[in-house]
Amino acid sequence: MTLRRKSRRNPMIWKKTRRIRVLRKDRQENDIEEEIETESEDLEEDEEEEGSEERAEDISRHKWTKASFIFPTEVAPTPINETPGQEKYRIQATLPKKVQFVIQEMLETEERYVEDLQFVVEGYMEPMIHNPDPSVSGLADNIFQYFGQIHSFHSTTFMASIIAAGTSDNPLKDIANTFISHEQELAVYLSFMVHERRAHAIIQQHHSGLISELESSLQDKLGLSANLLKPTQRMVKYKQFLDVILEKSQESGECEEMCDAHTMVTNILNTSNDLCHLQALQLPLEISHDATGELLKQADFQVVVNNKQKRVRRVFLFENYIVYSKEVPSSEEEELKYRSKHVVGLHEIGLTPYTPEEPHKCHIWTGETSFSMFSSSEQAEEWSKSISTILWGQLKQIKRDRDMSRMMKKTRGAVRIRGGANRK
Question: Which of 24, 35, 251, 281 has the most CB atoms within 10 Å of its CB?
Fold first, then answer.
C-alpha cells in the first residue's frame, strides 16, 4: 500500500518541484534583466554628466553619419560634416542637440565658403580681369558674371550676420530673419545659377590657355570649373540646413519666420532650375515665349502619343500651352537644348480625371491626339490637379465674359429705350 501511495504521489511531487524550479528560473532571469536595465540607465546618466566633447563624439559616431546628409539634387554632394569634437561657436544650449550641430556646421562652413570665394576671386578672376589682353578680360566678364557680387555680399555682410544670428539668445528666429532681410541680395544666386551652364561651356572651350596655366600655378586640383559650382552647392546646403531647423521649429510651434526663409531659399532653387530648362527650349517660330504665358511646371515624363511607343519627353506646362519636347544631343556636355515635338493650347484639351486605379498616369486629349504621361504617383497627381485648376479657371473666365457681354447688351437696350421715351 505504501509503495502504491508513493508511486501515486511521485508524479505530482515531481511536477510541483519542476514548476517551482521554472518559477525560480524566471525570477532569476527577471532579476538579471532588471539589473541590466538599471545598469544601462546608470550608464546613460553617467554619459549625460560627461563633458560636451565626449557627448558630441558619441552622437556623431552613432547618429550623424555622412550618408544621412547627402542631398539628392547636388551634382557633387557635400554632406554635412560629422559633429566636431570641439565646438567653435557657442550655440543656445536649450535647443535640441541636432539643431545645435546643424547651426554649428552652418556657421563653420560659412567661413570656409567665404575663403573659397576669396580664393577664386584672387586666384582667377582678378588676374583675368586685369590681363592686358582685351579678349582675356572679356572672357573673365562672361565667366565670372555675378560671382564678384556673391563674394562681396558674403564677405562684407552675410557671414557676420549669420554668425551673430546663430550665436544669439533666439537663434532660430534670428537665422530666419537674416535670410528674409537679405532676400534681395540672395536673389543674385538666381541669376548666377541660370548663367552657370554658359560659364562652364566657356571654360571648357578656352581651358587650354590661360585658365590651365592659372590652375597649375595655384596647384588647384579641383580646377576653375569645379570651384564655380560652389555658390550653387552653397544654396543647396542652405536649404538642407533649413530643412532640419524647420522640422524642429514645427515641433516647438515657432516656425512662422523659418517657414518664410525656407520657402524663399526653395523658390530660388526651383526658379533657377525652371529658367535653365526654359532657356534651352526651342519653340516653333509661330509661337513666342510671350504667347505661352508664365511657366508653371516642367518635368520629365514617359509619354505615349496616340497609344504608340513610350518616349521620354521634357514637358513644360505654361499658362496657355503645354509643350512636349525632346532633348537634342549635343557635342558639348554643357550645352542643353530641347526641340518642341508637340505644342498644344490648353483651351483645346480635355483632361481625364486622376484615379487611384492608375496612380502613375496623367492623361490629356484633343480632338485628334491623346497624350498619356507616366511618372511617379505624386507627380502624376500633382500635374493632373494643376491642369484641372487651369481648365476650371478658363471655364470661370468664359462664364464671366459671357455674363459681362449679356449685361452690356441689357444696358445698351435699356439706354435705347430710355432715349426713345425721352424723344417722345
Answer: 281
Angle, CA 244 vertex, CA 180 and CA 267 arms, to 5°: 40
Q: What DSSP element (H or E) covers 250?
A: helix 230-252
**Paired sense of beta strands 338-345 and 295-305, if any:** unpaired
Burial readout 175-210 (b: 16 or more C-beta within 10 A, e: otherwise): bbbbbeebeeebebbbebbbbbeebbbbbeebeeeb
**Rounded CA gap, 205 and 215, in Å?**
15
Length of the chain: 424
Residue 327 grid coordinates: 532633348
Residue 89, amino acid: Y
Q: Which tens digits make up the pLDDT trace of 339-357?
A: 999 999 988 888 988 888 8
d(Cα 274, Cα 277) in Å, to the nearest integer? 5
pLDDT tens string 161-216: 999 999 999 899 899 999 999 999 999 999 999 888 889 888 988 888 888 999 99
Grid cell at residue 140: 573673365
> Which residue shows C-alpha cell 560629422?
82
CB 269 within 8 A of CB 240: no
Residue 294 three-state SS = coil
Asked if residues 69 and 80 have their Cβ atoms less than 8 Å apart, the reply is yes
Contact 351, 363 (CB under 8 A): yes
DSSP line for 359-372: TTEEEEE-SS-EEE
Against a cut of 0.85, is the pTM above it? no
Please determine, for residue 86, whether its predicted confidence score (pLDDT) is greater than 60: no
Residue 287 bridge partners (DSSP): none
